[in-house]
Amino acid sequence: MTGSKWEQRRVETTQRLERCALELTRDKGFDGWTIDDVATAAEVSRRTVFNYFDSKADLVLGPVHEDNDTLVAVFVAGGPSGHLWNDLVETATLTVEDKGADDLELAVLRRKVICSDPRVIAIAHERFEVVLERSVGLILEREGSDFGERRARLLVQLLVTIFDSVVAGEPDGTRPMSDLINEAVADARAALTS
What we know:
This is TetR family transcriptional regulator. Residues 11-71 form the HTH tetR-type domain. InterPro entries: DNA-bd_HTH_TetR-type_CS, Homeodomain-like_sf, HTH-type_TetR-like_transc_reg, HTH_TetR. It contains 10 helices and no strands. The chain folds into 2 domains: 1-62, Homeodomain-like (Arc Repressor Mutant, subunit A, Orthogonal Bundle); 64-194, Orthogonal Bundle (Tetracycline Repressor, domain 2). With 194 residues, it is mainly alpha-helical. It has helices spanning 3-28, 35-42, 46-52, 56-61, 69-76, 84-98, 104-116, 118-143, 149-168, 177-193.
């Protein structure tokens, strides 16, 4: 089997497992299903589930990924364009694509599950705080401490809100997520300058 076929199969299996976990959470709540239930629903072994995911939270919210060192280095160095907001948007969009998190149908389902289950909300909030702090740190590393932590937090929170608006709009999936994000950023700019 070639690397690309293996990679495609890995992506398909990952998404199938995530979809099954999200559907089980939607239907039974986060505490209402087991790893065995996901394995059965996805028609894989329990071992396969653990080959792809470390926990139920990772199945529902996606695994916690390490930063892409190349993207981070370019961002911290002032790139790719030299304009902080544009670079933050581009780096975040490329990160979403790099992590394979740009499946719109899965993102819409994930958002619905997060918004409907208090346990998932709490786990998602904990993860968001970690990402927020890391992102703020990168902005301050790039721009210097005089930029201000509060201002950096606001930028990251604004970007997350824009990403959420893309998913909350339940896109039809015919356009790439990056296009939808760029359109939402343009809408935000227009709204803020009108």
